[in-house]
Every structure is written in structure tokens, then in C-alpha cells.
Amino acid sequence: MISRTLKAAGLGLGLTVALSAFAHAEPVKIGSKNFTEQFIVAEIYAQALEKAGIEVEKRLNLGATQIAHTALTSGEIDLYPEYTGTALAAVVKGELTSDADKIYSDVKTYYENELDLTLLEPTAINNGYAIILLPEKAEEYKLTTLSDLGPASKDLTFGAEGTFGERKDGLPGLEEVYGIKFKEFVKFAKLGIRYSALTSEQIDVSFGFSTDWQIEDSKLAVLEDDKNLFPPYYLVPIVRQDAMSANPEIAEVLNKIAPLLTNEKMRAMNAAVERDRKEPAEVAAEFIAAEGL
């Protein structure tokens, strides 16, 4: 009788401990890099996972690629949105190519085998680089392609933020592939000011991204990448494998979102935050409601 009582008490205690551990399971820690699009997409992921019953913790605005990547590999965060071309160039250090499927496969294989990370389904956002300038400047120098920019670059000033000056798919790539060497490179300390610097003619040339609403808004000229220097940059969630094992529902939730995120929708959401002064969380909630998630 005493034995049965003790066993029952032990079983009860075991269940209590197990249920307590389940109730206090670690939240999924979601990170982002330090610009608007990342804030919005990370908020979409966080809100969608919460709606699926998964507790989340947001650690947004971590910094540039290497900072966010280090946070992921160290376990400070469990997932964040990244771009396949960026992962290839900055982490894998692989050969740049215009083959989107090969880039995804190469990055996924490397991340899984070397870093214990995995890539989920890519979104429909291909946020590739665009070399931009005022249309009157393009007309003055008769520029339509990056090949045209090569000879003219010695007379022009280029401005950018972040690591574009050091990246293989940045200024070093432009010089190697197109012979582009600008008269001056102005590096901005803060993100997001290149468009105002360009339109106020503080610089002649800069870079943008395909989901930047300002390109169309300011009617800027975009030079054709006629030798395919820039690889595709599909936005994809990168997740720690141990977080996936603990929360396999992550893949189901985020893969459902993937095809709904497009360049057109992302441009509109970026504009809503940067131009219309909405909060990223509000814009994310509107997207989730509109898509019936």
C-alpha cells in the first residue's frame, strides 16, 4: 500500500514536472537585421507563429548580416529572415551565379552540414541590387547598362551604407566585372539616407533594392546588370535545427507565408513604414489579416 502510494506520488510529481517544463518551454527567439524590410518580415513571422500557439520573443534590429548571423549560430536567436545571395556571398563565400535554384541549394547544404541551420521555403521576394542614379545624370553620360558605367565611373561619386564597399557582390565585384572605379566612395554612417543624398545630388550613383519604394517614387534610372554580376536575393527564413526539432510547426507556419510575400507587396509595406510612418508591427498585422492568416 505504501509502495503504491509512493509510486503514485512519484508519478504525480513526474507529471507535474513534465507539465511544468512544457508550460515553461523556451520561446522561439526571432531576430532581424537593421532595416525596415527586416523589421516587417520578422514581425510577420512573430505574429503568425503566435497565432499558431507558439510563444515568441523578438530580438529585432540586431545589425548587419554578420551580426545577425553570429546571433543565430550562437543561439542568441533561433531564426531570422535572410537573402540567399547575401548568404552565398557573406557566409558561404561561394561563386556568384544567376541560378536561383543553385544558390538556394548550395546555401542550404552548407548551412545544414556546417552550421546546424536550415533554410525553409523561400518567399517570392527577390530583393536584388539595383544601381541607381538620377535620370538626367544617366542621360548626360548616356548610361543604360553597368557596362556603360565603367568608362564614366571615374567622373562620378558613389555613396552607400553598410558593407557594400567590401562585399564581393558590391564595389569589388563592380570593379572586377565591369571595370567600374568611382572618383570617390562616400560611406554613410546611417542606413536609409542614400536616396536623399542621391536626389539632392550629394552623390551621383548609389545602389537600391528591388523592394525599395523610393526608386519608383523618385523616378530614378536603374542600370541593367548586363553581365549578371548580382545573384538573386530571395528572402528566406533561416532557422536553427534545434529550434526546429523543438517546434516543428515553425516550418508549416512560415512555409505557408512564403508564396504570399512578393516584391510588390513588400514595396507597399516598406512605403507604409518609411513614408507613411506606420509601425512595422501594425503593417505586419494588416498583412496577416489581408492574407487570411
Task: Characterize the structure shown.
With 293 residues, this protein is of the alpha/beta class. The chain folds into two domains: 158 residues, 3-Layer(aba) Sandwich (D-Maltodextrin-Binding Protein, domain 2); 95 residues, D-Maltodextrin-Binding Protein, domain 2 (3-Layer(aba) Sandwich), CATH 3.40.190. It has 14 helices and ten strands. The chain has a three-stranded antiparallel sheet. Helix 2 crosses helix 14 and helix 4 crosses helix 5. The N and C termini lie far apart (54 Å).
Offer a quick outline of the entry.
The protein is an alpha/beta fold. It has helices at residues 2-23, 36-51, 65-74, 84-92, 100-115, 135-140, 146-152, 171-178, 194-199, 213-217, 241-246, 249-257, 263-274, 280-290; strands spanning 28-31, 56-59, 79-83, 117-119, 129-133, 157-161, 184-188, 205-209, 221-223, 235-240.
Keywords for this structure?
single chain; 293 residues; alpha/beta; D-Maltodextrin-Binding Protein, domain 2; 2 domains; three-stranded antiparallel beta sheet; globular
Task: Itemize the secondary structure elements and their pairings.
Elements: H1 2-23, E1 28-31, H2 36-51, E2 56-59, H3 65-74, E3 79-83, H4 84-92, H5 100-115, E4 117-119, E5 129-133, H6 135-140, H7 146-152, E6 157-161, H8 171-178, E7 184-188, H9 194-199, E8 205-209, H10 213-217, E9 221-223, E10 235-240, H11 241-246, H12 249-257, H13 263-274, H14 280-290
Parallel strand pairs: 1-2, 6-7
Antiparallel strand pairs: 3-10, 4-10, 5-8, 5-9
Helix pairs in contact: 2-14, 4-5
